[in-house]
# Entry
Amino acid sequence: MASAAPVLLLEQTDSTNAEARRRAEAGETGPLWITARRQTAGRGRRGRSWASDSGNLFGTLLLTTRKAPAEAAQITFIAALSVADLLDAYAPPSLVTIKWPNDVMLAGDKASGVLVESGSHPAGGLWLAVGIGVNLASAPTGTERPATCLAQHLRGDVGAPPSVETAGARLAQAFAVWLERWRTLGFEPILDAWTARTTGLKGPATARLGHETVEGRAEGVAPDGALRLRLADGTLRLISAGDVF
Ligand code: BTN
# Structure
């Protein structure tokens, strides 16, 4: 069985991604999960903040790699699949889907987000901070799109959502299994598993790339996981998950 990276649980930090960055810049190579009960400055994609009420899971896997950045970015698919596995253990699996590129949804509403950051490691190669927030106990209100949490979608035989400790350990284990598959089998089976659970890969799609909003019709994914987006003028644009922020 693939062995999970150690999981550190902090009572409070500004952001587990920021904590991972500081440690990487100080020479920590990982793999190490940094989780926290509370974040005072949780970060989301596109410069947004991430509501960090205690009872939810905030975790970042810090690791280093010699892969080229484009290949290393494939880890975002592993993050989404691992969260989906975690939620499957407590919610009816039919409710758990991935919304392109890596939001994990319960009954169509967002329950989890992924923020991958990277930089040059002082010892060479790249450090990656794979930050994952999972709404276990509560969902933020007033978000741009409706959000939900695991507590609202538990299976009948499950009494309560997992604690932060249990969820962190299960996520770390699921992640280790997917990482091992990626290492031994390559990216294709990862992409197949991700494609099977992901919505928005066909039909009208909008991608926000920094200040640019690109609209078109999605026509599936390329072998590297980039979304194939047919624009109104007929041209095909490939949008990689790492470009969507
Ligand atoms: C998104 O906007 O969908 C991504 C949200 C990512 C939130 C997680 S919580 C743990 C880690 N630390 C952060 O500051 N952000 C990520």
Remarks:
- The CA atoms of residues 222 and 228 lie 6 Å apart.
- The two ends are 34 Å apart (CA to CA).
- The longest strand covers residues 109-120.
